[in-house]
Amino acid sequence: MDVAAIGNPPAQMWIDRDDAPACIERWLQDGVVSDEEAARLRQFREDGFIILPGLFDAETVAAVCDELQRLYLEPDKYLLRMRKGNIRHPDGPFNPPKSRLLDYYVNSERARDMVLAEPITRFLQLLYREPPLAFQSLLFTWGTEHSIHADNTYIVCDPPCTLMASWIALEDIEPGTGELAYYPGSHRHPLYLFKDGRIEWRHQEDGKPVHVDYTRFLQERADRIDGPPRLFHARAGDVIIWHANLVHYGTAVTRPEHTRRSLLAHYCPADTARPNYFRFFDRACRRPWRDGYYSSRRYDLRPGIENPYPVYLK
Q1: Is there a domain that residue 230 lies in?
Q2: pLDDT band per the 50, 70, 90 thresholds, residue 230
Q3: pLDDT the model gives residue 204
Q4: Which DSSP helix (H) or strand (E) runs through 115?
Q5: 225 plus 84 within the same structural domain
Q6: CATH code: domain of residue 271
Q7: Domain span holding position 41
Q8: Beta-bridge mates of residue 101
Q9: pTM of the model
Q10: What confidence score (pLDDT) does residue 83 get?
Q11: End-to-end CA distance of the chain
């Protein structure tokens, strides 16, 4: 790949700057963070992720899974994005392979409690120095087999490198079900740049051949520099939080009869950043929940609006 096609990641969060280690030590000495929180911040800076094992107990996870199997009883309240990108409502207790349930937390208080649980929002608040905004969620029933990528390629917010993600296991993740694979430290590598120096891929402008080139670039670099990926063999209730530039993918599904239920959420700073859809969805609005906020590009969340049905289907 031409050297001109890559660029250094912008240090838009303090954790990515050269003085971050000194800041962590200062916070620790001043009592702003605990020993455990300081260790998590150091790991996140070095590896691009942290894991919160057993954050949600079995009863909490079971309640969410039970709720999911009844969505088809009120299908118009929920949206599924299918394999080809088309949108439809759930029609059975198990969502189809390669589908994803969009912004489930809007109509599910249990899901909202998960993506904005105190340990998650606390860690994000330390990274952002302000409350987090959960602005998108994807709930998967099966392994995605998503190609190698970093989230900034597809999920757009401004500033772009303030994006974060949490991934919550809703069952024990078994080998062969499309486990999450990731490359520790890959968030510090130079970024692939698309046309005009963009870090996000636009299907209409860039096309599939450029996307193939992008994935080849990431895979060749991972093979050359990072070595074998790490697999997240999560137990139900485990959570991983990762950096926008962490390179990851969904492994091949070799046991298609087994589910891999998981809840993914994307975040940005609530006050100093904005999801891209705030530019075109005139009903985009954030709502407070626990110690953070949530929003959606599908639902009207303006104050005083109590409409539980999606109003934007593209």
Answers
A1: yes
A2: very high
A3: 87
A4: helix 109-115
A5: yes
A6: 2.60.120.620
A7: 13-45
A8: 80, 139
A9: 0.95
A10: 79
A11: 34
Residue 81 token pair: 């994005």
**47-84 per-position pLDDT tens digit:** 999 999 999 999 999 999 999 999 999 999 999 999 77
State residue 3's pLDDT score: 38
Which residues are 267's β-sheet partners?
A: 134, 164
CA distance 65 to 215: 33
CA dihedral 116, 165, 232, 105 (to 10 degrees): 40
Pairwise CA distance, residues 211 & 206, whole Å:
7
Model confidence at 157, in pLDDT bands (50, 70, 90)? very high
Angle formed by the axes of helices 118-128 and 35-47, nearest 10° = 70
DSSP 34-71: -HHHHHHHHHHHHHSEEEETT-S-HHHHHHHHHHHTTG
Structure-token pair, residue 210: 């450029």
Q: Which residue in this structure is represented by tokens 């049905």?
A: 309
What is the rounded CA–CA span in Å between residue 111 and residue 224? 39
- Render 125-178 in DSSP notation, one character per residue: HHHHSS-EEEEEEEEESS---PPSB-GGGT--EESGGG-EEEEEESS---TTB-
Can you tell me the mean pLDDT for 40-45? 98
Q: Looking at the domain assignment, is residue 212 inside a domain?
A: yes
- In this prediction, residue 216 has a pLDDT band, given cuts at 50, 70 and 90, of very high
Report the alpha-carbon distance of residue 245 to residue 248 in Å, rounded: 9
Query: Which tokens go with 2?
Result: 């031409």
- The torsion angles phi and psi of 202, rounded to 5 degrees, stand at -115, 120
Cβ pair 206, 153 in contact under 8 A: no
- 141 and 257 assigned to the same domain: yes
Provide the pLDDT for residue 85: 78
And the tokens for 75? 């299908």
* Token pair of 35 as six digits: 């020993």
